[in-house]
Amino acid sequence: MKPENENFFERVYQVARLIPEGRVTSYGAIAKYLGAARSARMVGWAMNASHNMDDIPAHRVVNKAGLLTGKHHFDGTNLMQQLLEGEGVEIKNLQIVDLEKYFWNPFTELETEI
Predict the structure, then answer these.
(1) How many CB atoms lie within 10 A of CB 36?
(2) How many domains does the chain have?
(3) Which of 4, 36, 37, 97 is at a distance of 20 to 30 A from 14, taking alpha carbons?
(4) Does the keyword tRNA-binding apply (predicted)?
(5) 3-state secondary structure at position 77
(6) Is 94 part of a structural domain of the chain?
(7) CA–CA gap between residue 93 and residue 109 (Å, rounded)
(8) Is residue 2 assigned to a domain?
(9) Between residues 6 and 13, which one has the greater pLDDT?
(10) What's the CATH code of the domain at 65?
């Protein structure tokens, strides 16, 4: 991995660690917050690379429509969904019900830039 990617990944992890239990954000929202609006896919790569890091709540990062697109990167059949439901997030057909209710926007929730 290139050093600049490692730095970007760490910045993604800093934001992801701040997502509260029972809330979700999107790959794009993290990318935009970090000043890299076109890098949602790279945020996804960072989330995929974080699976051995217990302090990164990757299950709280979904696509912009609330779909659990990262679910196949979790062990078990429905682990991502189970983790979110355990935090009180309602999911139907692999999509968050009432995404606006659960959505955590780093721009409005964080006071300082990472």
Answers:
(1) 15
(2) 1
(3) 97
(4) no
(5) coil
(6) yes
(7) 28
(8) yes
(9) 13
(10) 1.10.10.10
Give the separation between CA 85 and CA 24, rounded to whole angstroms: 12
pTM listed for this prediction: 0.89
Residue 114 lies in a domain: no
Mean pLDDT of the chain: 90
Q: Is the pLDDT of residue 94 over 70?
A: yes
Q: Indicate whether 109 belongs to any domain.
A: no
pLDDT digits (tens, 9 = 90+) for 35-46: 999 999 999 999
Take residue 32 and report the two structure tokens written for it.
């935009």
Within 10 Å of residue 96's Cβ, how many Cβ atoms?
Answer: 22
Write out pLDDT tens, residues 57-75.
999 999 999 999 887 777 7
Spatial distance between the Cα atoms of 3 and 40, rounded to a whole number of angstroms: 19
Structural domain including 91 reads 1-100
